Amino acid sequence: MGEGVRPDRSGDRPPGAPPDAISLAEARRRWTRYRAEVWTTLAEVRGQSGRLAILRNLRPGSLPFRILTGMAAPVFALRRRLRPSGTPIIGNTPSAFPFGNESSEPTWRRPLLIDDVDVITLDDSDVDVTVARANDALGGQGWLLVVDATDELRDGAADQMAALGATHSADLVFADERTHDSSGRTIAIARTRSLGWMSLLSYDASGRVVLFRRSSLREIGGFDKAAGWAFRHDAVIRLLESGAIAAHLDQTVVETSTPDSRYELALPMVTSAALGRRAGGGRAISDEVTPGLVRWRVDAPTQWPSVSIVIPTRDRLDLLVPCLDALEKRTTYPSYEVVIVDNGSVEPETLRFFAENRHRVVSAPGPFNYARVINRGVDATTSDYVATLNNDVTITTDDWLEQMVEVATLPGVGIVGVYLEDPAGHAQHEGVAIAPYPQHLRRDRNYIVPDDFLLATREVSAVTGACQLVSRALFDELDGLDETLAIVHNDTDFCLRAQRLGRSVVYVATVRLLHAESSSRGRLTPQDDIERFIARWDVFDTLSDPWFPARWELVGDVIRWRR
């Protein structure tokens, strides 16, 4: 679109947005019920029996309910600010994560009629011999499940996985599992509904127990001994690269032992090979702290694309000046500009700063509408990529833009976000999960076990606009942020619309920035934005998150098994 004024789209449905699924009145009812569930769940987890009994006897949305929750909200907010770093505010401990009960045995959903499934157990010490044995079993039709000698597969699990694969015409089927940590504690591992290429580069997102369609494996040349002990993980990646279909069985089918160190050491080799095939090259290493987690980078381009960093503000030089100072001192990216978007500043010091600073200032007057302010700023740019950056964000990773651009330029990627933490050192944003309502994942608050899933660079349903990178071409294709969502959910809506157009959203875990959230305009959460978003996307019903564990839901600050 280039520099200029964005046409008025207030009466049009933005590109990628579905027709409203429900009425605003129904959206309001759903939101009220969800808030009531959040409060009762928090009381249940914290063992507050008195408050729980009161809440269960109050009608959600009634005046007594609003009074009670209104009195409690500031107390909980104060507890968050004062709690020691790393201390979750919810009552459950890592050993009780997630909250609630899970059935110890699977409940199979259909008769087991599959008779062409072979399960082979591998216990060889030589990887070449092991891979040869697995490849020898690829003849004929049907399915193959390769398990380790220490894996305890549940009766009927392989047949049930094959039944699901046949139903979905899948090439591979993966499922949930149990394992043990170093202290012998049993840990439930729930997998995401979908397998993403970014996730698979970062960790074994499918798990070690994967059912393969023999013919599909043969088409990609079978298992590759060059992948070492991670040959099954390598096969999953190569299958997905070939366009294979993966299906997830949301049942626990196996209890596995702690992964062999030989397997973990082979994962970076698999990632490096995948980067070479699809990204032209890259490098990968094992994470120094978390076994099984891979840190990877794409080879730098011969010429970096240009980036415009759009920073909205209204006065608040106490935030803007430190933001710009850190950006200028720390950013190592070779080709960027800063565009400050002024939403009606009036303080003389601010106006003087605008006149004297070296960055371009774009005027966006009027009532605060984050989406409109960002759109106005982007319209004033012509760079290849646009990075939105809140004025209360401080750059703490020097090559933050290089890392984001490397991922953003990979095939199929649309939007990229990063890790944010608050001034007290608490995690604030590790991707957005919609399970069932959009919320930031935060290891100090709701996702209280920093596992390889949380710590990985991975596909997500959304990332916060506080720091978000997108190509200018995609921004224009989506017609920018939806200005009818003035304050909240415009960034999540933007990400969901991008995915409906076939672009993925990626969270980069290795870029860490500081964010004094809500410092600029306080805590603004308009009810109209919430209801409009719920109505458009059918939140609490058909909208689901393919990139969050399928069997978990996030209710306020509690992750629990779905009920």
General description of the model:
- With 563 residues, the chain is an alpha/beta fold.
- It folds into two domains: 117-293, Spore Coat Polysaccharide Biosynthesis Protein SpsA, Chain A (Alpha-Beta Complex); 306-561, Spore Coat Polysaccharide Biosynthesis Protein SpsA, Chain A (Alpha-Beta Complex), CATH 3.90.550.
- The chain has 17 helices and 23 strands.
- The protein has helices at residues 24-45, 49-56, 63-82, 127-136, 157-167, 197-202, 214-219, 231-241, 261-278, 317-330, 348-356, 370-379, 400-408, 452-455, 472-477, 490-500, 527-537; strands at 117-122, 143-148, 152-153, 172-180, 186-189, 210-213, 246-255, 282-286, 294-298, 307-313, 336-342, 360-363, 385-389, 393-394, 413-421, 427-429, 432-434, 438-440, 458-460, 467-471, 504-515, 552-555, 558-561.
- The longest helix has 22 residues, at 24-45.
- The protein is globular, with a radius of gyration of 25 Å.
CATH architecture designation of the largest domain: Alpha-Beta Complex
Helix content: 25-40%
Rounded to the nearest angstrom, the radius of gyration is: 25 Å
Number of helices: 17
Give the tally of β-strands. 23
Query: Quick one: biggest sheet?
Result: 10 strands, mixed
What share of residues are in beta strands?
15-25%
Stretches where pLDDT is under 50 for at least 5 consecutive residues are 84-92
Question: How many structural domains?
Answer: 2
Q: Give the C-level CATH assignment of the largest domain.
A: Alpha Beta
